[in-house]
Prior knowledge:
Elements: E1 11-14, H1 22-28, E2 33-38, H2 42-45, H3 48-58, E3 62-66, H4 75-88, E4 92-97, H5 99-111, H6 119-122, E5 134-138, E6 150-155, E7 160-165, E8 173-176, H7 186-204, H8 212-234, H9 239-252, H10 266-278, H11 282-297, H12 302-311, H13 321-338, H14 345-348, H15 354-364, H16 380-390
Parallel strand pairs: 1-8, 2-3, 2-4, 4-5, 5-8
Antiparallel strand pairs: 6-7
Helix pairs in contact: 1-3, 4-5, 7-8, 7-9, 7-11, 8-9, 10-11, 10-15, 11-13, 11-16, 12-13, 15-16
Bound molecules: 5,6-dihydroxy-NADP and zinc ion (ZN).
Domain Alcohol dehydrogenase iron-type/glycerol dehydrogenase GldA: 9-178
Domain Fe-containing alcohol dehydrogenase-like C-terminal: 189-388
Organism: Cloacibacillus porcorum
Amino acid sequence: MQNFTYYAPTKIVFGKETEKETGALIREQGCERALIVYGGGSVKRSGLQERISASLEDAGVSHVELGGVVPNPRLSKVREGIELCRREKADFLLSVGGGSVIDTAKAISYGVPYAGDVWDFFAGKAAAQAALPMGCVLTIAAAGSEMSNSSVITNEENGLKRGYRSDLSRQRFAVLNPELTYTLPPYQTANGAVDIMMHTMERYFTSECDLLLTDALGEGLMRTVMECARTLRDDPANYAARANMMWASSLSHNGLTGCGSVEDWASHQLQHELGGMFDCSHGAGLAAVWPSWARYVIDADYTLFARFAVKVMGVVPTADERETAERGVAAAECFFRSIGMPTNIRELGYELSEAQIAELAEKCTNGRTRTVGGLKKLDYGDIVKIYEGAR
Length: 391
Ligand code: NZQ
Ligand code: ZN
């Protein structure tokens, strides 16, 4: 087990009607003028925005709004938010939405006190020294941004989707009302399930072999997410499944299921390039690349893949451990398909050309200057083969 620091300072307010507490939660932070950030309109249509405005008003918190954040959130919207925040003198950022909205607010929060261009953080040219305080009301269980320290933004000028991590972006509070996710289209619910699974899988497929507790927590979380995803496919208004899925979203990406591990993250890097090139949904992109990644690296530790097969996917072990491992990958594909997710890039909706594969691999390795992955370090040539395998 590696040395580790576990830091998860976000106050979680969980359950039905908890969005009514939002105004008081902002007040608790000593703030009185919020910039509310939201997406393409689902929060207006559902009436959530109105309830939150009322809660803020009751608590004496005034607000301005920034709508129109799109999935794979854009740098231009971040810049617009920084200008608006400065002009309106907002002292708190409230996200109402999912990962794209929260990530936009995180980037705005770094950008407001920074004299340079906010992309500097994502390009690795600067480290944030300050950020405005933030909180969120979550409307989709997926990215885990409500408890993570990362923000992922797409620069539409160069097609690069890049993440930046800093503890300054931890949410002061996260309001998690599972009922707010009832209005999600089934495709988004399934996307979210894959992303939640993958946040633990990226931490589970590691070279550390003595993480008894961390692995057991991860296995329980992954089994729970699969069970809830299947329930929600048939019964979208099942409160218990929505609630467990939402809690899993937060726990899967707040570091808990990675304590002591080296972590991998290759599948996320491979997906970010697909997102930058095709603007596809994050969870679906992960489902499209993971099977090819798994088959490419399986020999780095097929005992671990066999454990995943048995303890997570419910595969009956055979005498041949490697065969058991392979059956686990096939079972994961079956699960993805069962909830309407792709298992390769064609099913995701794209025919990749040789030139596109080369471009994706070039970007993924920052022009062949880095490797990605922890279980097996992958260079440009490896990445080309994984994209080819995912075609
Ligand atoms: O924009 P609106 O109209 O709100 O619609 C959204 C959007 O179209 C819709 N939606 C959300 N809640 C809804 C709803 N529709 C109906 N009812 C509701 N209750 O869902 C769509 C997707 O929203 P988005 O915020 O993009 O989803 P998600 O939470 O999956 O976030 C994905 C983004 O997060 C990044 C991804 O790369 C992607 O850009 N990630 C962020 C991470 C982090 N900050 O820690 C980690 C992740 O690995 C991930 O990379
Ligand atoms: Zn993710």
